[in-house]
Design goal:
The protein is α/β, with parallel strands linked by helices. The chain contains 17 helices and 6 strands.
């Protein structure tokens, strides 16, 4: 990850763990109320705190849920919380709206923002907002944030294009070489090459070329997007903002040698991997295939193909760098996409490493040359020399 990418990620992605602290809002700031202390309520509350609002959470168990909320927010019972703000966000499911009925008088004239979504279409005869309005007729009910998930509120407007394209490309490249590895182990287990592969494996091996070309297409999109990152408005804005803040505070940043080596290694592996990627795509063209011998085609598609997978996997590992060991990386206690996508290529490379060990490779080579396990015991005459 380059310095500009890190600046963009830092500006666009805000981490939120259950115990993350937020800057408390000043006492004179406008207060808002959030009913519900679940994932969506906590994420929305933190964003409101960061925007400068005072946040009061309304909970049926205020004492037990206070430890989960962002620092700087108050947590009270529903009745007390409803009196503290004019704007109230309802971050609870429709099935739990009954607690609002006793609060109907206190909610008169207040604005209720309904955040709920039903699990199924036409699950109820009326919309959730209509039902909420019938329970609290004196309040002003509006809908909001129905297209935002708790994950989106937590991470902010993270740019999916920066990770989706390389993740899909790496997984599809792994799927190109996984069936060959499975076929080798199946031949090794059977001890012969004269038995057909299962139908699903046979079909998988026949569509490897299409998978490789799609993988190359996503790799092209990843490279193009990486090239235009420096000219994006958000990146230029945050780089300029950082530079101006350093000038105003009369500060300088020291050159980090470790970060420089990391960025150079990360970019170098990516460039080498993409170059071999393009070579694999070129040798897949019919006009080029007809000009290559089988040995040349096998060398490019097999040996250079696995080398491409190794370089791209190492490129992704360097993207994670030391964040694999940081607890803040695992938002909601789940690993990010660039970590999950490393599972399949790592498995493929480990299996291929087992296949190229001398003892296993020698057996596989003999099987592909026509040797069958147990052939000497079934035909003892075949083991006798032709000339005495």
């Amino acid at each position: 990850m380059t310095g500009q990418e890190r600046s963009e990620e830092k500006s666009e992605c805000v981490s939120l763990s259950p115990m993350m602290e937020a800057v408390p809002a000043p006492p004179q700031s406008e207060r808002v109320c959030v009913f519900g202390t679940g994932d969506l309520g906590r994420s929305l509350g933190l964003r409101l705190l960061q925007a400068g609002y005072g946040v009061v959470f309304g909970s049926r168990r205020p004492h037990s849920s206070s430890s989960l909320l962002p620092h700087g927010a108050q947590v009270l019972g529903h009745a007390a919380a409803s009196q503290s703000a004019h704007l109230i966000f309802i971050a609870v499911q429709r099935e739990h709206y009954d607690f609002l009925v006793p609060l109907a008088n206190q909610l008169k004239g207040k604005v209720l923002v309904d955040l709920s979504n039903n699990l199924k279409k036409n699950q109820y005869p009326e919309a959730n907002a209509e039902y909420l309005q019938s329970l609290v007729p004196g309040a002003e009910v509006v809908k909001g944030f129905n297209t935002l998930s708790a994950w989106s509120l937590q991470n902010g407007p993270s740019d999916a294009n920066r990770q989706v394209c390389p993740i899909v490309s790496l997984i599809m490249l792994s799927l190109c070489y996984l069936p060959g590895v499975l076929a080798s182990f199946l031949q090794l287990y059977r001890g012969t090459k004269y038995r057909r592969f299962p139908n699903w494996l046979d079909r998988w091996m026949l569509c490897r070329k299409q998978l490789g070309l799609l993988s190359l297409g996503f790799a092209f999109l990843h490279v193009l997007y990486t090239l235009i990152i420096p000219i994006r408005y958000s990146v230029m804005f945050w780089v300029t903002e950082h530079t101006v803040s350093l000038i105003r505070e009369n500060r300088t940043t020291m050159f980090d040698t470790t970060t420089a080596w990391h960025d150079d290694s990360y970019l170098s592996l990516g460039i080498l991997g993409f170059g071999l990627y393009v070579l694999l795509g070129i040798t897949s063209l019919p006009s080029v295939i007809n000009a290559l011998s089988w040995r040349e085609f096998s060398f490019v598609q097999s040996k250079l193909g696995h080398l491409t997978l190794l370089l791209c996997t190492a490129h992704t590992y360097l993207y994670g760098w030391n964040r694999f060991l940081s607890s803040s990386t695992y938002k909601w206690y789940t690993p990010p996409g660039y970590m999950l996508c490393l599972v399949l290529p790592s498995v493929v490379l480990l299996l291929k490493l087992l296949l190229i060990t001398p003892c296993v490779d020698r057996t596989i080579t003999r099987i592909r040359q026509g040797w069958e396990r147990g052939a000497d015991q079934r035909n003892p005459k075949d083991s006798q020399p032709l000339i005495p």
